Design the sequence.
């Protein structure tokens, strides 16, 4: 066994981030998958468990639970069911790092449980900070927990800030690819299909984040995430469209200088950095040559074509539980689009109407976030039925 073996719990191991995290673990001897969890993809979770031999696996599906119990009964792997079991297992003293890559606000409770257990967090679940960023960052500070961002943009900023003082930062600049419809006439947006929206030009990601990228809501959520992660007001965080996705984000300092993190558009890099932080680990990778880049282009986002970005800014300006409303309504709208219940342009309507009418809570406690999430989802589904 490796002397400096780092034991990792991967929440959402069957998703895009989780499978890439396991790809890293399969190639490097200094990391071990200690716990794997999934929502319903129990067959892939079973394959992962047989290959990586974690101590615990957790599935959020009863049929999957009995399937795994049978398939893993002679493997010395414990099988657990549901969120409550998952949250309890995160206090295991053998766990060194928790990678939270559960999709959506479902990642909130496990992330809180991991922080309360004083586990450092590799955060790939931006919705946790969108929903309850103030609470999460305050709790992490109280428990002495490090939150290491895995989103490529926030990882880039995090890396640019190493050795720097946050007080010397004048602006954070998030880059956006612009998604698959960057150059499509808005008049044609009504004809956008699910299949077209899922074809991102640069990144290989899960379906929810790919749709969010197509609407630019993903960048709106990342603005809110950056606000909480780096303790900067929204006015000091901007977005620039960068179609090549080579520069992942930039930091502007008070002396006028800029720092940027560059690399190929792959999530392997930010996942690996979160795993190895504060050091770096060698990893065989595709060749990257600046000379091969013909040009790098940048321009302002078109918020008339992509209004989700302004809605996200507005929610953080409203404050309180408004970002929670934004997130819940968007999750419902994206799911409805993916299931072909609504069209591409209907998604923004659902989020807009949800933000126009909700019970505002200025200083929400954890229970307020749960109530807001539940009521917003009910309202959003009602709005979908009325379309």
Sequence:
């Amino acid at each position: 066994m490796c002397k400096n073996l780092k034991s990792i719990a991967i929440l959402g191991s069957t998703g895009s981030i989780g499978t890439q995290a396991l790809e890293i673990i399969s190639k490097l001897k200094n990391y071990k998958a200690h716990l794997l969890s999934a929502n319903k993809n129990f067959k892939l979770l079973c394959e992962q468990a047989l290959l990586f031999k974690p101590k615990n696996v957790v599935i959020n599906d009863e049929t999957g639970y009995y399937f795994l119990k049978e398939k893993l009964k002679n493997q010395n792997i414990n099988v657990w069911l549901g969120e409550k079991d998952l949250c309890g297992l995160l206090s295991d003293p053998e766990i060194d790092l928790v990678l939270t890559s559960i999709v959506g606000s479902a990642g909130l409770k496990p992330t809180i449980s991991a922080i309360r257990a004083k586990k450092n967090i590799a955060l790939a679940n931006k919705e946790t900070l969108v929903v309850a960023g103030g609470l999460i960052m305050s709790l992490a500070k109280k428990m002495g927990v490090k939150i290491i961002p895995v989103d490529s943009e926030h990882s880039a900023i995090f890396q640019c800030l190493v050795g720097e003082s946050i007080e010397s930062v004048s602006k954070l600049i998030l880059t956006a690819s612009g998604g698959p419809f960057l150059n499509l006439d808005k008049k044609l947006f009504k004809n956008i299909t699910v299949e077209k929206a899922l074809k991102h030009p640069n990144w290989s990601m899960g379906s929810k984040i790919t749709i969010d990228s197509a609407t630019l809501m993903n960048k709106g959520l990342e603005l809110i995430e950056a606000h909480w992660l780096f303790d900067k007001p929204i006015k000091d965080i901007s977005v620039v469209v960068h179609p090549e996705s080579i520069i992942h984000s930039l930091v502007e300092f008070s002396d006028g200088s800029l720092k940027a993190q560059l690399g190929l558009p792959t999530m392997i890099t930010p996942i690996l950095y979160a795993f190895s932080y504060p050091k770096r680990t060698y990893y065989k990778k595709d060749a990257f040559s600046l000379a091969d880049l013909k040009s790098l282009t940048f321009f302002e986002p078109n918020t008339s074509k992509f209004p989700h970005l302004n809605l996200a800014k507005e929610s953080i300006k409203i404050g309180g539980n408004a970002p929670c409303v934004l997130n819940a309504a968007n999750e419902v709208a994206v799911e409805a689009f993916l299931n072909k219940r609504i069209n591409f342009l209907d998604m923004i309507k659902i989020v807009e109407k949800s933000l126009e009418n909700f019970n505002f809570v200025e200083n929400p406690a954890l229970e307020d976030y749960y109530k807001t999430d539940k009521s917003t989802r009910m309202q959003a589904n009602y709005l979908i039925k009325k379309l």
